[in-house]
Amino acid sequence: MDLHHLRTFVAVAEENHLTRAAERLFVSQPAVSSHIKALEGELGVVLFHRTPKGMILSREGEKLLGRVRRILDDAESLLGAARNMSGDLNGQITLGINTDSVFIRLVEISALMRRDYPGITMSLVNSNSWEIVRDVRRGVLDAGFAYGEISEEGLQATVLARIPFRVVGPAAWAARLESAGWPEIAAMPWVWMAHNCPFLDILDRKFSELGQHPQKRIEADHESILRALVLAGEGVTLMREDEALDGRERGQFAVWPGERLGLPLSFVCREARKVEPVLGAVRDVVASVWECASCP
């Protein structure tokens, strides 16, 4: 049984679309169709129903999907163990970056990798936390940085730090924010976060606890857009404390003196791949840099 065919099956099942699966796997659409047809022939079952809305798993496909994922995980684990025996630490790894490079400490990480593991090349991809978690799970990324509580089966999240966040608004709103409590904060116009954003999780929990309903003026899906909209006077939002305080010093933002909220920042990879020496080397360097940064 060809592992490429199994990977194609998982990609089509997750994307529900031949073209998107082909783009994800960097192969042609006919190749994807050929892999699925060959796998269906080998297994003797229909794996998908082709519909106007895309490729829908058949009942048999649904039952087999979990087993196929476990087979691929086992294959990756076997390959990692073999590489570990050989001591080969040459290779490339693709990392998802969820925020600015200075905060993630990419310069320090890169310098340490270059010194200790010159045979490993890193490829960096900017993305959102939830997309990084999704793409690590799907195998599109080898690993990545992500905010939020990550407890998905099959993923390993190494918590690097708990990051404080603050409510911020336009600089002209300083007096309003200074005297506000949570009810007043909820009543202000909010530059809200897109679905799946970890910021959204902590705000939803907080407002739910308080029985408050925030006034959502506009929604955005990236930290840089949130910042720009607050600067433009559109409303309040949630921002990393270091950025919030720096923006206040520059006269760009007003920072609410009330409650700080926190989110873990983690380095995420697939559980089955944690034994791979190249991935393990990168994870250890990242953890080392963040440990040193937290030392007094």
TrEMBL record:
Gene Ontology MF: a single term: DNA binding
The record ties this protein, via InterPro entries, to: LysR_HTH_N, LysR_subst-bd, WH-like_DNA-bd_sf, WH_DNA-bd_sf
Q: Which residues form the HTH lysR-type domain?
A: 1-58
Look up keyword Transcription and say if it applies: yes
Which UniProt keywords are given for this protein, alphabetically ordered? DNA-binding, Transcription, Transcription regulation
Similarity field: Belongs to the LysR transcriptional regulatory family.
Q: What is this protein called?
A: DNA-binding transcriptional regulator, LysR family
